[in-house]
Design a protein that fits this description.
about 80 residues, mainly alpha, about 70% helix, two-stranded antiparallel ribbon, elongated, 3 helices
């Protein structure tokens, strides 16, 4: 756990630690997946996006969220 803690909080990319960047990336992927699902009727170009792409974005967001969770909890364990 010490390695995860030092990676998540000790390594900084710009003004934020790595754990925050994983949180930002997760949020962006979740917003993209949700916007594809909700805006398909309003924007004709999004109708060509397959369910496979939507599902891939959601799975990537889930994996990033789990890694973000592990990094976030590593400070307490």
């Amino acid at each position: 756990m010490e390695a995860l803690r030092s990676f998540g909080y000790g390594t900084s990319l710009g003004p934020f630690p790595v754990v925050v960047w994983f949180g930002f990336a997760t949020l962006v992927l979740l917003i993209l997946a949700a916007s594809i699902a909700s805006l398909k009727k309003q924007i004709p170009a999004l109708r060509r996006v397959s369910v496979r792409v939507h599902r891939g974005l959601a799975i990537a967001a889930l994996v990033l969220a789990l890694f973000h969770l592990v990094l976030g909890l590593s400070i307490y364990l």
